[in-house]
Automatic annotation (TrEMBL), chain A:
<feature type="transmembrane region" description="Helical">
    <location>
        <begin position="67"/>
        <end position="86"/>
    </location>
</feature>
<keyword id="KW-0472">Membrane</keyword>
<feature type="transmembrane region" description="Helical">
    <location>
        <begin position="35"/>
        <end position="55"/>
    </location>
</feature>
<keyword id="KW-1133">Transmembrane helix</keyword>
<keyword id="KW-0812">Transmembrane</keyword>
<protein>
    <submittedName>
        <fullName>DUF58 domain-containing protein</fullName>
    </submittedName>
</protein>
TrEMBL record, chain B:
<keyword id="KW-0812">Transmembrane</keyword>
<feature type="transmembrane region" description="Helical">
    <location>
        <begin position="81"/>
        <end position="99"/>
    </location>
</feature>
<keyword id="KW-0472">Membrane</keyword>
<feature type="transmembrane region" description="Helical">
    <location>
        <begin position="551"/>
        <end position="571"/>
    </location>
</feature>
<feature type="transmembrane region" description="Helical">
    <location>
        <begin position="58"/>
        <end position="75"/>
    </location>
</feature>
<feature type="transmembrane region" description="Helical">
    <location>
        <begin position="106"/>
        <end position="124"/>
    </location>
</feature>
<dbReference type="InterPro" id="IPR052901">
    <property type="entry name" value="Bact_TGase-like"/>
</dbReference>
Automatic annotation (TrEMBL), chain C:
<dbReference type="Pfam" id="PF17863">
    <property type="entry name" value="AAA_lid_2"/>
</dbReference>
<dbReference type="InterPro" id="IPR027417">
    <property type="entry name" value="P-loop_NTPase"/>
</dbReference>
<dbReference type="GO" id="GO:0005524">
    <property type="term" value="F:ATP binding"/>
</dbReference>
<feature type="domain" description="ChlI/MoxR AAA lid">
    <location>
        <begin position="226"/>
        <end position="286"/>
    </location>
</feature>
<protein>
    <submittedName>
        <fullName>ATPase AAA</fullName>
    </submittedName>
</protein>
<keyword id="KW-0547">Nucleotide-binding</keyword>
<keyword id="KW-0067">ATP-binding</keyword>
Length: 337, 669, 302
């Protein structure tokens, strides 16, 4: 007896805390942010109900009248069912994954449900396009992911604006909707255009002088052999050693030893700016993959030479947010941090 | 099952099937070309469930719609407003089926079909039809549900639909009982249909049409004795003016309001009549009626022809209680009778008849002898009874009496009345119904095919004498109804529905038949005739008095009841009052989730704890693992281990987990 | 894990390298007394695996290479007229072995396929009205090529359902393939590890493994989801439910438990259900129905 009460206490206690935590994490729907109105089908059934009421009264036909009442009662109940269906869901927009301009970016939504109702559908309206999610969370299940493929976006940083979520359940007589504003923007990098990289050595007194271009190409100088790590590219594996049964070893190139150069936007001044950014986008990734330390000079904004994943992200972000006249870079910097 | 129907096409398929199902009982008002369109549309829509057929172009369809609309307008005059509306709805539905490719198209179809069903209810209201159409409504709602069912399959969707419907019905019933009945807003267009009942004029031949309909006219529920078949003459309309072809009401008899009170005496039948709308003001009664109570909203009077009538045309069912005194003589109001009226004949018609009556030398005979003489013509010569009399367009009496000698009741009545008038006996035609089917032991059901016409002749001593010439030719007509007096060919004319019913009764299914009738009777009493008065009587039975205050209380109480019902539906009872067996693993997971570790749906307890174990300290890990072991043994194995042991482990780990949390929160603050 | 089984797996693992899980699953399948479907590209070691299984278990082994012209009689056996004593004597086909490898089953005609599947279900063969019992134990390990080439007859859903499990071996990882090459010359000798008596005893103990109510609920929830959700092209049959049940028991057994946990179900579910859920829809690579199924059901809420 006492144990079951204790158990109950724990259950209630935790349920409360869990709910509070969930409310902070994901967007829950409730009276304060949910709107509900009949759908066009709902409006038309209401109109039919009124027509039937008139018809039934005029013919003094009780059955037609009761049909009209039935429709009204259906609408009334649908209102409630729809509301409870809608508010059982929580939608969480995960941070959009940055993508390239020539691809359709993904937006991941995680939908969780307290699972009172099964079936029904949710629609997400993002930038005027409707994405239909037939609810597949069954009773007693909690979560599902919904992957939305947005249309191609141009390079840049896009704030998606508010996402309208609407839910339809039952006979489709009512529609509940609410808005979600994703906190994080969608970052779209330039598309990729292949072109070999040219690294410039840059002196400190770069100001007026043409860079004393000692062009560096990535050398193939083998520096040594070391134990293979999972992150090493496969084409660095020393197959010779593998064949000898000496285990998986990686060739170590003397890449970052001293090679450190700048990628300049200036190099592509004759090309349209977008094209130039596309080329830079490719080069940045190539260099980063080869673990070359490089800097990026976009004229108004410079990123000091470095290497690594974080550096790459920073470079890509500045490419994404580059705009010829103004300096959005402050903004980009804040996003990156 | 060569091919499976894809789930996306299922709603459309059900909608098509329901459409056919709905339209079937409405067959009669639908025009032929609409039928053609219907078959095409249903065929195409049905085929679409199995093959990919592109929808029609909008442009083509719009033009076609305009064309159809034109046709409807052209035909609307012949068909009347209601039939035209039915046709319009069917056409609209068909056209929508042809261009069906969106969800909203199906929504339109559903709305139109609901309207169509409502129209069906105007035509048919019997309990069978109510059930029939309820099925249609259910399947329409199922379609509506399927359209938004998401990932739910068709079977669980069906269960959900049923659940929602069951929740809806009590509210609809409450609304039905509570919402005040209003009088008609305006005069509604009636069906322009020949079947609606007796008309105020009889051209011999008319009633032959009537006899083909099995529509209900009225039901009489007797309290006590039932009149014998031969006594069941239901008087409705009295016709006294003859223009050579048609009998009409010459001048109306005086209403009986301020006439001296008749002395009712003799044998009495007490009964209640529930009459369908007649579209005329005339009602039905056995002779001589006395109205004791009227339940419907109109007043009912008796005039000097012993007819009952209401103030105006009965567009709604009427319900009234009568006493009839069949033994009484119909000799009242002698002083106000205008015998000229009952001797009127058109000039220069039917010379053969005139000559024949002259040749009989009737001058010195009394009325009864004259009647005897004249009716003997029917019995002695080869007259026969048929539902398909030949056309007798001019000199109809002559043609009937001397050429064809075949006819139906109005032929006989018309001929006899004419002969009587020539012979200087005041006479008139009475139309009404004769007979009726006895159901149970107290209910007589009278249908349109029971329509009849007979003759009344005046004798100074006896008053009006009822003469039924038809009965002389076809005595069965009187004793056992229309069917027995018909030959096989004729009975084909009766609508199949009723024929089936009768066959059923021949095959010993009479009880079932009676059951249906009684169900229909109760249905019409409880549902169809539910009106303001019924509402008032509910109010009275509840509060004792039906005043405005009680009415408002009643209304408010009902709405509160509806509200309470909805609350009842939506309060999460199970979560509030469930016995609360929260299993231990759920508690641990909740505790961990509370700490910010999210369990994936698919993870088991062990997997979850293993995943997050790097983030817990050693003590916590130990306790959690200990709990998991205990729990697994308890929950899954046969080994008997006390739950308290599991619980102790749970409490330990929970305490350990929350302790740290509290410390952390203290540090934060 | 039971030491005998462990040894068994290790021994077979010396021959089919880097496929511990698959070997474990195939043993589970045999312990659960069900037939196995191997689906893989040619040359992945299907035959090696089944041969190794046969040797380890000390069972007779035969391999039938299915081709489009293989007739049921080639497999089941024929009656041959014996002139010396003037009567028909029955010559059993390769199916009269305890382990039968039906290689490339989807290349055979549906007629032959169904003859095999009938033998699998009935564990007996009827030829010319005479019924012959198949040896006991009797396992069929069928292999099929996932690519639908022309001239192949993919197994219909109803027949897929008869295979308790379907596993695919896949390419070996780097190390295993290397080992495979390095140890190529050393002779691969296997001894009988589990004699028939042990196997039968084990099968009996497997059926005594307990599945508690909450695990059964979990199992049924999984199964019912496939019937209710439209995500799955083919719902699971009760036969499949039974197969999951038995395999989970067997898996619990080889892990030295006398009760089934939800983890057992999760472990064996993909191999038991994937082929049933997918049916003939091969083209949808990447998305696994059984994974999707597991993703949706919470084992705790059961």
């Amino acid at each position: 007896m006492i144990t079951s009460i204790k158990k109950r206490y724990w259950a209630i206690h935790y349920e409360w805390v869990v709910k509070k935590a969930a409310a902070q994490q994901a967007q829950g729907f409730g009276l304060h942010n949910t709107f509900i109105l009949p759908t066009s089908f709902g409006w038309s059934t209401i109109a039919v109900a009124i027509c039937l009421f008139v018809l039934g009264t005029n013919y003094q036909n009780n059955i037609v009248l009761s049909l009209s009442y039935l429709l009204l009662a259906l609408n009334l109940l649908s209102l409630f069912h729809n509301y409870f269906f809608f508010t059982q869901h929580k939608v969480d927009v995960t941070r959009p994954i940055p993508d390239y301009a020539n691809r359709k970016p993904h937006l991941k939504l995680s939908i969780s449900s307290s699972g009172t109702y099964s079936g029904g559908e949710l629609n997400f309206i993002i930038e005027g396009l409707i994405y239909n999610y037939p609810v597949s969370i069954k009773k007693g299940h909690h979560k599902d992911n919904f992957d939305i493929r947005l249309p191609k976006h141009p390079r840049g940083i896009h704030y998606l604006g508010k996402i309208t979520v609407n839910g339809i359940y039952g006979f489709g007589l009512f529609k509940c909707w609410s808005y979600i504003v994703p906190d994080d923007p969608l970052v779209v990098y330039p598309a990729v255009e292949k072109q070999a990289a040219i690294l410039h050595k840059m002196n400190d007194d770069v100001s007026g002088k043409e860079a004393s271009d000692s062009q560096i190409s990535i050398s193939d100088n083998l520096q040594g052999i070391r134990q293979h790590q999972k992150t090493d590219p496969l084409h660095h594996v020393s197959w010779k050693h593998v064949a000898k049964g000496q285990g998986l070893l990686s060739k170590d190139f003397n890449e970052s030893t001293g090679i450190s150069g700048w990628l300049l936007l200036r190099d592509f001044l004759d090309l349209p700016i977008e094209k130039a950014l596309m080329i830079l986008c490719f080069q940045v990734q190539e260099l980063s993959r080869d673990k070359v330390s490089f800097g990026l000079d976009l004229g108004s904004h410079k990123i000091l030479p470095n290497s690594g994943e974080k550096h790459l992200k920073e470079c890509l972000l500045s490419l994404a947010s580059y705009s010829a006249e103004s300096n959005n870079n402050a903004k980009a910097a804040t996003i990156a941090s | 099952m060569s091919q499976q129907i894809s789930p996306s096409k299922l709603p459309a398929l059900i909608a098509v099937a329901t459409f056919c199902y709905t339209v079937m009982p409405l067959a009669s008002p639908i025009m032929v070309w609409v039928w053609v369109l219907f078959i095409c549309a249903v065929g195409i829509a049905g085929a679409r469930a199995f093959y990919d057929i592109p929808p029609l172009k909008n442009m083509t369809l719009n033009l076609f719609a305009v064309f159809c609309l034109g046709l409807l307008v052209v035909f609307s005059d012949d068909y009347g407003l209601l039939s035209t509306m039915v046709n319009l709805l069917v056409v609209a539905c068909c056209l929508k089926f042809l261009m069906l490719h969106k969800k909203s198209d199906l929504h339109v179809i559903l709305v139109v079909q609901i309207f169509l069903i409502a129209c069906g209810f105007i035509y048919h209201q019997a309990v069978g039809f109510a059930i029939y159409y309820s099925i249609a409504i259910c399947s329409l709602l199922y379609v509506a549900f399927l359209l938004n069912a998401g990932n739910l399959r068709s079977k669980p969707s069906f269960r959900q639909t049923t659940k929602l419907l069951i929740q809806t019905v009590p509210i609809a019933v409450a609304l039905f009982l509570v919402v005040p009945r209003l009088p008609p807003f305006w005069q509604t267009p009636t069906e322009s249909n020949t079947k609606t009942g007796l008309s105020e004029s009889v051209t011999p031949g008319d009633i032959a049409n009537l006899a083909q309909s099995a529509d209900l006219v009225f039901r009489a529920e007797f309290n006590g004795e039932i009149p014998a078949p031969a006594e069941r003459y239901w008087r409705s309309i009295v016709l006294d003016y003859f223009d050579g072809a048609t009998w009409t009401i010459g001048s109306e008899a005086i209403a009986n309001d301020n006439q001296p009170y008749l002395r009712y005496e003799g044998n009495v039948f007490r009964y209640l009549i529930m009459a369908e709308p007649t579209q005329t003001k005339w009602l039905f009664s056995l002779d001589i009626p006395r109205v004791t109570d009227v339940m419907s909203s109109q007043n009912i009077y008796m005039n000097q022809n012993y007819q009952l009538h209401a103030n105006g045309a009965a567009t709604q069912p009427s319900l009234y209680v009568l006493e009839s005194y069949p033994g009484m003589k119909l000799d009242h109001y002698q002083d106000t009778l205008n015998f000229e009226k009952y001797l009127q004949v058109p000039n220069n018609t039917n010379p053969q008849t005139n000559a024949w009556i002259d040749s009989l030398n009737l001058a010195n005979k009394n009325t009864l002898e004259i009647i005897q003489l004249l009716t003997s013509k029917f019995t002695q010569e080869a007259f026969s009874y048929t539902l398909k009399p030949p056309l007798m367009q001019n000199e109809s009496v002559d043609q009937f009496l001397f050429d064809y000698q075949r006819g139906f009741c109005s032929h006989y009545a018309s001929a006899l009345t004419y002969m009587l008038r020539i012979a200087n006996v005041p006479a008139r035609i009475v139309t009404g119904y004769q007979g009726g089917q006895v159901q149970g032991d107290a209910i007589i059901t009278v249908r349109q095919y029971d329509a009849h016409a007979w003759v009344e002749a005046w004798d100074d001593t006896v008053g009006w004498i009822r003469i039924d010439p038809t009965s002389l030719v076809a005595p069965n007509r009187l004793l056992s109804g229309l069917f027995s007096s018909l030959d096989d060919e004729d009975s084909d004319l009766i609508e199949g529905n009723e024929l089936f019913r009768n066959m059923a009764s021949f095959w010993g299914l009479k009880q079932l038949n009676d059951l249906i009738t009684i169900a229909n009777h109760n249905w019409s009493q409880m549902v169809l005739d539910f009106d303001q008065d019924s509402q008032r009587s509910i109010l009275e039975s509840l509060f004792g008095d039906a005043n405005a205050k009680n009415l408002i209380t009643f209304l408010i109480a009902s709405f509160i009841a509806i509200g309470a019902f909805i609350t009842f539906l939506f309060v999460p009872w199970r979560r509030w009052f469930s016995a609360g067996e929260v299993s231990a693993d759920v508690l641990l997971v909740e505790a961990l989730e509370n700490k910010g570790y999210d369990k994936h749906v698919s993870e088991t307890l062990k997997q979850f704890c293993q995943r997050i174990s790097p983030e817990l300290n050693r003590e916590q890990n130990n306790l959690v693992n200990k709990f998991i072991d205990a729990f697994y043994t308890y929950q899954y194995s046969t080994e008997s281990i006390k739950y308290s042991q599991v619980e102790a482990c749970l409490m330990d780990s929970l305490n350990c987990l929350t302790k740290r949390k509290n410390k952390a929160s203290n540090a934060n603050s | 894990m039971r030491s005998d089984i462990r040894q068994c797996i290790d021994k077979i693992g010396n021959i089919v390298r880097g496929k511990q899980t698959q070997i474990e699953l195939s043993l589970v399948c045999i312990l659960a007394n069900g037939h196995l479907l191997l689906e893989d590209l040619p040359g992945m070691g299907k035959t090696t695996l089944s041969q190794a299984l046969a040797t380890t278990l000390g069972l007779d082994y035969a391999r039938i290479q299915f081709t489009s012209d293989l007739l049921p009689a080639d497999m089941l056996g024929v009656n041959i007229f014996n002139q010396s004593n003037n009567e028909f004597t029955f010559h059993g086909g390769p199916i009269f072995n305890q382990i039968v490898l039906a290689d490339e089953i989807n290349r055979a005609s549906p007629k032959t396929q169904s003859a095999l599947l009938e033998a699998m279900a009935e564990r007996q063969v009827t030829i010319d009205g005479e019924t012959y019992k198949l040896p006991d134990p009797f396992f069929v390990i069928a292999s099929q090529n996932p690519l639908h080439q022309s001239g192949t007859h993919p197994l219909p859903e109803s027949q897929l359902d008869r295979f308790q499990m379907q596993i695919s071996l896949g390419y070996p990882d780097f190390e295993s393939e290397k080992q495979m090459l390095l140890r190529q010359d050393s002779p691969l000798v296997l001894d009988t590890m589990l004699p028939i008596e042990t196997l039968t005893a084990m099968q009996q103990s497997v059926s005594k493994v307990i599945m508690s109510d909450s695990v059964i609920n979990y199992l049924l929830k999984l199964v019912r989801l496939t019937r209710e959700s439209s995500d799955f092209p083919n719902a699971l049959s009760p036969r499949a439910t039974k197969a999951i049940f038995r395999c989970a028991q067997a898996y619990a057994f080889i892990n030295r438990r006398d009760f089934v946990t939800p983890e057992d179900i999760q472990f064996i579910l993909p191999s038991v259900t994937e082929h049933r859920l997918r049916g003939q829809l091969y083209n949808q690579t990447g998305s696994s129905y059984s994974e999707h199924l597991l993703q949706q059901v919470d084992p705790l809420a059961a």
